[in-house]
């Protein structure tokens, strides 16, 4: 297959964080397709996905896992790159996890970027629903991962200057993430997708806030957090009759 046959979504915006990894992932995708490498799982998502070394946890000679997480990504950009980073790779399964970055728009500095919790909820669930249906259309089994809770003391990130400091609305954000997870769980039932509930295993006593020992910055899991996620994913898939590898 020639390079010209590869799907390349191009750049979305001068501010689109999805653009940061586009040249890298286009080259990776081309190598996979050109060499006809069979893919078992593709993980698509945000920084929590990108920083999860899923190949280390689950990979092996007979289990090729591709990570297409992008730090700072949002679900509507994930949807735009879904044909390139998932569908054309023809994996057996796709793990979809997103929505946390969508919630930052509650406090966007630019009023045109700002959205209400209801708008963010419906946008996120709709985007994930479209990805699930597209995967099924191509014979790919969808796995929906819940969003994680967030913790206290989340730093501001200079790479996203349009946003206020993220630590100003922890409770509101965590409640919205909880509701989004409820919506995607219902979506999974309706679409007969596999749902993975990471959230319940990573919250503090209030059922909403991230346990402080599981992330060094209140947002991205450390090794303790990823160990929990790996175990939850492994057991959930095993219960559904899906083998992802050994822990």
UniProtKB/TrEMBL annotation:
InterPro entries xrefs: Ester_Hydrolysis_Enzymes, SGNH_hydro, SGNH_hydro_sf
Superkingdom classification of source: Bacteria
Coiled-coil positions: none
Signal peptide stretch: none
Domain SGNH hydrolase-type esterase residue range list: 44-227
Protein name according to UniProt: GDSL-type esterase/lipase family protein
Organism: Paenibacillus solisilvae
